[in-house]
Amino acid sequence: MTAPRPLWQGRALAVLGILLCAFSLRSAVASLSPLFDHVAADFPVSSAVVGLIGTAPPVCFAIFGLLTPLLERRLGLERVTVIALIAIAAGLVLRGFSVDAITLLLSTALIFAGVGMGNILLPPLVKKHFPDRLGVMMTLYTTAMALSTFVPPLVAVPVADATGWRFSLAMWGVFALAGSIPWILMLLRGRTEGAPVPAAREERPARETSTSDADAPEPATLVTGPIAVAPANSRVFARLVRLPLAWAIAVVFGTSSTMAYVSFAWLPTILIDRTGVSASVAGLLLSLFAFMGLPASLVVPVLVVRFQATRPLFLVAVVCGVLGLAGLIMLPSAALVGLWVALFGIVGVLFPLALVLISVRARTPETAVALSSFVQSAGYIGAAAFPLLLGIMHDQTGDWLVPLLIIGAVLVVVIPFGLIAGRRQTIEDAWERRHGRW
């Protein structure tokens, strides 16, 4: 077995490119909502437009998640990554120059198109450039995404007060533009820097102790391909649709997305109505919910890659999420609300967990591209419905009890899927067991 290379050796540009791309994906989404009041001072922004902007992310992510593999087949991972980052940067700058609600919506859609592409590309990029350092790189890039979730809301308003909302919105484009530079340099050099060493193996994790999988063979992680990555194709994607493992990972990812978008849409209102906290305190508690994802981003990738702790991590996330919701339902006290939000925020473990599974459940970058597209497109399609559904249920019942019960039911229903996703096998293994040669 070849020893892993130092992280920066021969692939410094890939490290910078992945981290800057990861930061841009979340900062592009999180930087607008705190500034709606500032924008509305210059031109009217109707509630319908705000609703469309809130629904746009999962819809765009699902659509462009399906289109990205087609582009990757023709252009390759790095070129499509450059396109995605330039689209994000252009959209952020154009959003800063919005003159009415329509231009605000269109520029935001351009941003989310680029983000939808980037969401699909990051796991395969890590798989391709860091097969021997999956745990470390997944930790770094999911941490960058966690930071970019709660940092923009904290600084957006102060920057807007000092320099205006247009600059506050557009400034995040610098990170996306900077993120494209390493990939452009690598392409201009005419080679892929940091490609995996032939015949190098990824870190071998310890065996899981699950009784159902105790005798399962170790997933094949041998990197046998050359520098170039074989393009994702329709044959691979069609096979994923027939595999319970692929659907299980998609459901876990979709549950993670559902918890995030439901919380960012409704959690402050729920806390105000049920616990009586002020709007400013509710905003801080929303930041607490987002912050809980940071520790998860630091530890989950390493625990999964090295110790195959998929199922324990999944169950911790689900149980804590249910406990937090139960607290908000049965003891909605202002004195305890911080505890309930912190417990519920531990469902943030599901996001880095799902991203790591996309990488470790595929033998090759080709399969990882197809799996990433399938998982994220299916997951975002499911997640898109819940913010609207919960709003309708609240309007019908006049209370948040039924919406909270629905959220809790989602966490309970996902348990069997999480256990399937924790099976220690690759997509290729699962296919070969059912249908023969991959």
How would you characterize the overall build of this protein?
The two termini are 25 Å apart. The protein folds into two domains: 1-197, Growth Hormone, Chain: A; 232-438, Up-down Bundle (Growth Hormone, Chain: A), CATH 1.20.1250. Helix 1 (12-30) crosses helix 6, helix 6 (134-163) packs antiparallel against helix 12 and helix 10 crosses helix 18 (415-421). It is built from 19 helices and no strands. The protein has helices at residues 12-30, 36-40, 47-75, 77-96, 101-129, 134-163, 165-170, 173-188, 234-240, 244-275, 279-291, 293-307, 310-330, 337-345, 350-360, 365-397, 401-413, 415-421, 427-435. The chain is mostly helical and 438 residues long. Residues 192-232 have low confidence and may be disordered.
Record the SSE blueprint.
Blueprint: H1 12-30, H2 36-40, H3 47-75, H4 77-96, H5 101-129, H6 134-163, H7 165-170, H8 173-188, H9 234-240, H10 244-275, H11 279-291, H12 293-307, H13 310-330, H14 337-345, H15 350-360, H16 365-397, H17 401-413, H18 415-421, H19 427-435
Helix pairs in contact: 1-4, 1-5, 1-6, 1-8, 3-4, 3-5, 3-16, 4-5, 4-8, 5-15, 5-16, 6-12, 6-15, 10-11, 10-15, 10-16, 10-18, 11-14, 12-15, 13-14, 13-17, 13-18, 16-17
